Amino acid sequence: MKVLRKAIFRRKTMEVDIYVEIDLDSQGYNIETEDRFFKHMLETFAKHSGINLRLRAFGDDIHHVIEDTAIALGMAILRALGDKRGLRRFGYAIVPMDDSLAVCGLDLSGRGYFVIDGDIDENYVHFFDTLCRNSRMNVHMNVRGFNSHHKVEACFKSLALAFKQAKEITGEDVVSVKGVLD
Questions:
Q1: What does the pLDDT read at residue 102?
Q2: 93: closest CA among 148, 38, 146, 50?
């Protein structure tokens, strides 16, 4: 029996209204948010990770929208991964983008942690950290370059490609000597 790896998560506070619908096993995206660059980054993540992502994110300022989108997306990913049985678990990617280069290693370990070596916009450092804590992914990222847009986009692409590998179903067991990923 095929397990459906889908989830819906809504986060509504006094500051934001975020809706996320994710399907790890189909492709496509429909992103609605007021910040065009953030929308582009979310579309980039969906496209390169091979997921279907429906997301609406609106709020009182861009910091709150980015932070709470990371919470909601992270929770949706965590729910969609289920018991993580059969997952490849690990993923990695190296993404050049013009002057920039991003390297990402990812483990769907159940222990959310984010480390970055390199300089990107503070809102996006916060996005990746919040996403990792809420999805319980362990991500190490390295980025270098000159253009801030290219650095952030290379980070999103490397995360997406690493996640695409890690979420792949390759068997039936949990890839852990403990027998669980949490």
A1: 98
A2: 50
Q: Kindly give the pairing relationship between strand 6-12 and strand 16-23.
A: antiparallel
Residue 171 maps to a domain: no
One-letter amino acid for residue 116 of the chain = I
CATH of the domain at 146: 3.30.230.40
Res 68: pLDDT: 98
107 CB-side CA count, 13 A: 14
- Which domain range does residue 139 map to? 6-166
- Give the tens place of pLDDT for each residue, 26-42: 999 999 999 999 999 99
Task: Tell me the C-alpha distance between 180 and 175, whole Å.
Answer: 8
Q: Are strands 100-107 and 90-97 parallel, antiparallel or unpaired?
A: antiparallel
Q: Are 150 and 98 in contact (CB under 8 A)?
A: yes
**How much is the mean pLDDT over the chain?**
95
Is residue 34 assigned to a domain? yes
Whether 1 is in a domain gets the answer no
pTM above 0.90, yes or no: yes
CA dihedral 112, 97, 146, 29 (to 10 degrees): -50
DSSP single-letter state for residue 99: T
116 domain residue, yes or no? yes
Task: Compute the distance between CA of residue 58 and CA of residue 81 in angstroms, rounded to an integer.
Answer: 26
| pLDDT tens, residue by residue, 143-167 | 999 999 999 999 999 999 999 999 9
